[in-house]
Design goal:
The model has no long low-confidence stretch (mean pLDDT 97). The chain is 33% helix and 16% strand. Strand 9, helix 7 and strand 10 form a beta-alpha-beta unit. With 261 residues, it is an alpha/beta fold. The protein has one domain: Rossmann fold. The protein is globular and about 55 Å long. The structure holds 2-phosphoglycolic acid (PGA). The site of 2-phosphoglycolic acid (PGA) has 6 residues, from loops.
Length: 261
Amino acid sequence: MEVVIVPDAKAGGELIAGAMAELLRHKPTALLGVATGSTPLPIYQALAAQVSSGAVEVSRARIAQLDEYVGLPAEHPESYRSVLRREVLEPLGIGMDAFMGPDGTAEDVRGACEAYDRALAEAGGVDLQLLGIGTDGHIGFNEPCSSLASRTRIKTLTEQTRIDNARFFDGDIGQVPHHVITQGIGTILEARHLVLLATGEGKADAVAATVEGPVAAVCPASALQLHPHATVVVDEGAASKLKFADYFRHTFANKPDWQGI
Ligand code: PGA
């Protein structure tokens, strides 16, 4: 995997948005896998700025969801479908007809999970998947000890994750669903390019375990080591526990310009 250390979140967002724009110039119908959470917002802002300036065209791009709460109506403001509509699709001017995600309201949840895995494959697979990382190393809602071969499935949230996410539900943990549908780690690994952004010292231990630790289900993000094209973009805080930080800085500074990330 490639590790890129950037000065701050804004620079990380611009670097990744640049890679997305480059992909869209080569493949205007690219399927972009997007993530929720606070970390990816600078990516979406930078990409929207590129669209406004005419540097890239997204009218044929397609968007795929990483995970979703079970039981929240799609129109609920905190369903991830609603969040992504507000934070990604509307600013980019992409319509919901170009959006795909699992049905968190399905009565047959297992069937909805299988249907989403099939839909991703039938759409030709995800070209570039954005990922955040939890302080416990989770990607999507694949919490520690999720199978590295897992497919899209239902997961029961840990109490800590529900406490963390209560900030989006008026601070009321009672409103946070217990269950989610998440792309599995095996599903995520099928995307052609994985790009993980982590910012802040709070993510430093998880980033060190992901990049320099063993491949282990206890740190789900370490599965990125198995992927032929995985990029981990970190600010100085998130990079602060990397033993190989100088090596990563040197290689990124000296790679050929045409290579991109
Ligand atoms: P955050 O969430 O970007 O809000 O820290 C990341 C995650 O839990 O995947």
